[in-house]
């Protein structure tokens, strides 16, 4: 026979079970794409953001992370984000610059005097304004992530001067601006998705590429390109965007949760970034990569005049470039 106590215990268990079902049913997962691998600082930042969002929403909002190009190469995932098939995308500004013109300004060569200058711009009113400029293009800008400076690496020869660039076939991101940059330096740009660079290097389809220390090392590119020259020709940051479709579906309160968590994830990421930058450089050095540090960047900068001229044809870009340069 069942006692009253048994009965009420059963009722309690059933109630708990129903709550669990309904909590799960109302939990919503936002799919996030990141081209980098599982431990890369941006992926760690997305995981951190996911934890914050789940906590703040009592489990209602979750982030499902698809790293290592599981949802496709970067350009395709940006298109899918614009179409609303992917909810969140951590991309590089040079890639999304094809869709959102202000993003290309941040990828302009030798624009930032230092990482401090870059962070000051991104953390201040200009950064906020730029994040706000995504909306007409089908995205919502949530936050920027550090991505250091990009430099040129190759398997043929150490680059000591701009003359050494001549004839090298260098992979660039799928971006007209990046192609223009490498061409202006005298090399031959080859636009390839990130996931094809390693094979490209291994099969000698390309002589080299350009990227920051963590990307050079975590992808194993350093095993095939033994010369890394600190050209630091661009400091194009990474950025996190949400699709307009996902954004429209959120209440004002939930939008606040996302915005707040995104900004915190960017702060969380900075320490991880600096540590990995140093570790990657050491790892490349230990593996025998020749690191050229003593280059005169002046001729590299001078070669960018045409690129600035082209960018300045757009008055909004011209004004933004000036404002960024003026930030002390
Ligand atoms: C990295 C960036 C990636 C991707 C990659 C590339 O620095 O984090 O999103 O754009 O560069 O060169 O394709």
Portion of residues within helices = 40-55%
Give the topology string: H per helix, E per strand: HEHEHEHHHHEEEHEHEHEEHHEHHH
Question: Would you count the extended β strands for me?
Answer: 11
Bound compounds, each kind once, are: beta-D-galactopyranuronic acid
Oligomer: single chain
Major sheet strand order: 2-1-3-10-4
Largest sheet: 5 strands, mixed
- Helical run tally: 15
Sum up the overall morphology in one term.
Answer: globular
Spans of 5+ residues with little confidence (pLDDT < 50)? Answer: 13-22
**Rg estimate, integer Å:** 23 Å
C-alpha end-to-end distance = 81 Å
Mean pLDDT: 94
Estimated structural class: alpha/beta
Strand content: 15-25%
Descriptive overview:
With 328 residues, this protein is an alpha/beta fold. It contains 15 helices and eleven strands. The strands form three sheets. A five-stranded mixed β-sheet has the order 2-1-3-10-4, sandwiched between helices. It has a four-stranded mixed β-sheet with strand order 8-5-9-11. Helix 2 runs antiparallel to helix 12. The chain starts with a helix and ends with a helix. About 3% of the residues have low confidence. It binds beta-D-galactopyranuronic acid (GTR). The site of beta-D-galactopyranuronic acid has 13 residues, from strand 3. Beta-D-galactopyranuronic acid binds next to strand 3.
Short summary:
The protein is α/β, with parallel strands linked by helices and 328 residues long. Helices cover 49% and strands 18% of the residues. It has 15 helices and eleven strands.
